[in-house]
Specification:
Strand content: 15-25%
Largest sheet: 4 strands, mixed
Structural class: alpha+beta
Order of helices and strands: HEEEHEH
Number of helices: 3
Radius of gyration: 12 Å
Helix content: 40-55%
Distance between the termini: 24 Å
Length: 90
């Protein structure tokens, strides 16, 4: 379930000494689930999905906007994805 992947991300980031803030922007639907601040100074917008989930059109739009603005964005679909992302960015 998505909530388990999200809890796993929060725990893994915390273990590194970082923070994974829940991101809610009422006037802007489709924003990423978490803003992750890593101890190395990187900030990421992270969307979390269950393996059987799908991104909504608004989420795809947010992803496109982050790319246009040259921001760090990722969508993670499993605990394995979280582990791989941590290994590549921590």
């Amino acid at each position: 379930m998505e909530k388990h992947i999200e809890a796993y991300l929060v725990r893994r980031v915390s273990e590194l000494g970082g923070r994974a803030y829940k991101f809610v922007s009422p006037a802007n639907r489709g924003v990423a689930d978490r803003v992750v601040c890593l101890p190395n100074g990187q900030t990421w917008f992270v969307e979390l999905k269950a393996p059987t989930g799908r991104m909504s059109p608004l989420q795809v739009h947010f992803q496109t906007e982050m790319a246009r603005l040259n921001q760090n964005y990722t969508c993670l679909w499993s605990k394995d994805d979280v582990d791989t992302w941590i290994a590549n960015h921590a």
